[in-house]
Amino acid sequence: MKKIYYFLLVLLLSSCISVKKYNEQLLTKIPVEKLKKDVNFTYKKLQKNHPDLYGFTSKENLDFKFDSLKFTIKSPLNPSEFYQKLAPLITEVQQGHLNLMIPAKRLTKKEIKNLEKQKGLFSRYNFILDGDKIFVKDNADKIENMDVGTEILEINEEKSSILIEKYKPYIASDGYNTSYEKYALSRRWPTFFTVENGILDSVKLKVKFNNEIKIFYLKREPVSKKEKKAEKIYTKKKEEQKTQDYNPNTRSYNRSIDFKTKDSSVVLMTIKTFSGVKSKSFYKESFQTLSDKKVKYLILDLRNNLGGSLAEIHDLYRYLGADKYPFITDIEVTDSASLLRADYFSSIPWLAKPLAAITYPFYAFGSLLSVKKKDGQILLRNNLFSSKKPRKNAFEGEIYVLINGSSFSASSIISSKLKGDGRAILVGEETGGANDGTVAGRYNTVKLPNSKILFPIGLMKISPNIVFTKTKKGVEPNIEMIESTTEILQKKDKVLHYVLEEISKKNSIEIK
Questions:
Q1: Whole-model pTM?
Q2: For the purposes of burial, counting CB atoms within 10 Å of the CB of 469, is it exposed (0-12), middle (13-18) or buried (19 or more)?
Q3: What range does the domain containing 158 cover?
Q4: Start and end of every Tail specific protease domain (predicted)?
């Protein structure tokens, strides 16, 4: 027993030392020549791993930009300062999944434990941007002075507009898309702010609501025992409906169906993320219900769905009455050993790593066998998503898909496929993800040798099996409807209202 305690003490002390050492390294200036070597290293790793590096930006252009960056480095920089130079260059590749990881201060276990006992500052809210203005979109806890529609003018006496302009260069969408940026910044500006300023106990805010300007301090609050207990009970109760994938952080379901007419002929299916959790059961049960109730119209809401599981969208596609298979084209990689560089062990728990090490040779062998060459490309044989037929109870009625600039990655792939097949009418705003495919799936996370910045690089180019538009843009809707900031804040949902009105006109159906 003494040996176990000794081992745990050593482990704890070494952990604290490594955190301290890492944080000291964040403040250490790196010589110019070493920074330039990191720039070269970054570009070489991109060329080795990324299968569509020049899909949106030419090689000549990227060569010039990487060379130009080195000329701007004239004095030693710490990792954070170097990130501010390199990250905007990575966005020039115009691939939305491609981002440097921000070199952020690490916390000790004690600091993490203390934070777990507190509520966040900005994480308790959702925001929406209008140009360089920040508005409170949701305030679930009904915190005073943060009403929905409140505009944040200043944070710690720094104008919000300046913050947004500062963080904007770190955001990339797929190709020439312009709709994604405001949604991504709405989500990510609090993270950029926290990394830049540290984890603060309070911030001084200057806000405007109903033309009244206020100045107050937004503070962290402790989570009471009563709140903890209530949350556990609430979460346990809601988890009984696992197929809907309950999210305790948002206190909402990632999947849901809602019948919009008294005769059940119109149903709204909302998918907030393709998490893959219990998705097969959800679609099996839901589409059986649609079949039993003889539903005529399906409205699939993919707005603000950032993507996720490729297997889930393929499974969903099989329930949508389409028959144009394969679902995706053969996946493109840079070389036959590409998947051997994937982050195989990173997502596996420590206790399971020994087993993962044993099974790795089978993974490696299978990866090598799946590679083929065709027309000068290196491709993976499309076994999992190839010629499968629609499900027996697949939906055969009319489909509307709701999309916006925050429909990204997997949600863009299925939207593009349904539109390309002529199986659905898309309504809303151009998606943030590209129409003709994206680079994601498996990643190879490299560490820059001198700045120690982590850089995940996608290894797989995944494209829907359609006739490509070659517009280098997102999936464009059949019917464009862009919601204003005012409409979003007022929860009017004119896009859904429009679709319901159109269905009602066609069949004289009474909407609830």
A1: 0.91
A2: middle
A3: 118-219
A4: 228-469
